[in-house]
Amino acid sequence: MESSHTSTSSDSKTNVVDVYENERRYSVFDDFDSNKLGFGDPEPWDPAPLEAIELPADAQEWKSNWKIVFDDNFGENDDPEGWQYAVTWPRSISTLLCQWHGQCCALPAPDFVRRRCWRRSYLVHNAASKVPTASVSSTESFAVHENGQIRASCATSNSDTDIESPVREEERRAAQLISQRAKNWLQDRKRERMRLAVVNEVIDTEIEYSRWLMIAHQLLFLPWLALYDTQKAEVDRREDEEGILPPSTVFGNIPTLCALHDQIKEALCREKESGCVGKVWASFLPYCKEYCIYVSGYAQRCEALNHSCETHTEAKQVVDEVVKLPDLAGLPVSAVTIKPVQRLPLLRLLLDRLLKLTKPSHPDFRELKDAMQQLEVLLERVNGTSKDSQAMRGVITASADLAGTVPGLVRPHRRLIKRGSLQQAGLFVTWVQPDVELLLFNDMLIIAQSWGSFRVAQGVLQPIAIVRLGTPEDSDRAVQSSAVPEALDPHSVIFQADTRDSKGLSLQIRWREANGNQVSDLILECNSKEEIHDWLMAWNIALSKQPKNA
Known about the structure:
With 550 residues, the chain is an alpha+beta fold. It has helices at residues 166-237, 247-251, 254-270, 278-284, 290-296, 298-311, 313-323, 334-337, 339-357, 365-401, 472-480, 529-544, and strands spanning 6-7, 12-24, 45-46, 59-62, 67-69, 84-86, 113-125, 140-144, 150-154, 416-424, 435-441, 444-450, 462-468, 493-497, 506-512, 519-525.
């Protein structure tokens, strides 16, 4: 960046500051615009906007206003508005592409960038007139470089030696201070541009999500509700016919989520100019507890939707109308119903990025931090509700597979921790032997036999043993007394890797029968050490989640 200077008198001199205005276009059919500057390009105002340039500390006053610099080197081709054009910005590439000229070219090499120089002069008191020891009569000009540094160039000197003076040192410090301020301003501007981009992404994703909720409500829930009301009277007359499931069973609380996010979308759009989206989420996240209801029963609703489409032609027609939408592009209807499940994790990622780009002095920082804390608590609650719902469904499925052979298996406190089939060790003809099915709950362990495709009745397990879990202390004592089986307590179970297996792929289960007279021992083969590790981890989880007042 170049600067010019003119000496006015022996007591003062004229310095200038140059600022470049930069623009880019994407193609020869586009207009030049500063908003199109991308990564690696200079700032729109380099190094800072005109209004942000302050009078240097050593200056007396501004001598002129900001004016556009016209370069006479271009002659008749000089742009009337002072713009200089080039194919790209000067970098470590061919200098032929980076030559500035005064007229925009379309062929053979079109210009995609342009700049023009704004210049302002100011008066500086000549330090040489006050320092007799330094016989210096020089004119200095300060210009701000692209990297925000200040350049001071000495034009002439009447002395053979340069003598440092206190005034010159003060000028140097002032130049460093201005340079640092320019760097900080550039960093803050870049950070704010990135922050506004994330704010726009938060608002855009909310608008898109509200549109999907509207599709689920208007095109799925309401037509299903009308179909349900129509068939309900017919089913009441013919008791032998199974009616369509109610929409709340199939689609959950979609209407509530749709109404909630309509209000959130309007509030976010009102705050688009200010960029303060944190206070919007901080005020609406307490109402997002509705997601616990939707996420916890999502798997059951998917099964209910599939079952209704298989048994009722009218229900399938409602779903097919939604699948034909261009937005789905041939995807199944689950691409719509899964949107609420995905919303909170995506929102957490966006707000986390926004919080990192927000300075503590920003007016939205406190509300944004509060919103992040609320969202973390809500996600933990939603995930816990979903896992608890899956564990409860596992108990119901296990009860159905056992075909009532274990009465009272379904209890409010009981949860299924892990279930799997293993082969009993030491059997030579394994294809005619039943698999051992382990059903580990948070208060008991059921060991059953599963014959696979040779079951007597499909979906029926034959229980071998039902062992109640003891406390973690009981389990520790059981492991310590494993060498003496008679020392096992009636409610203590050993669940550990078999140390006698050289390959380390066997799982040992030892327990005392309910009558207290016999100790049973079972060795099961696992496919990998990771599988053994998973079972041992599940065992520790079951011990830690035992109900207190079951």
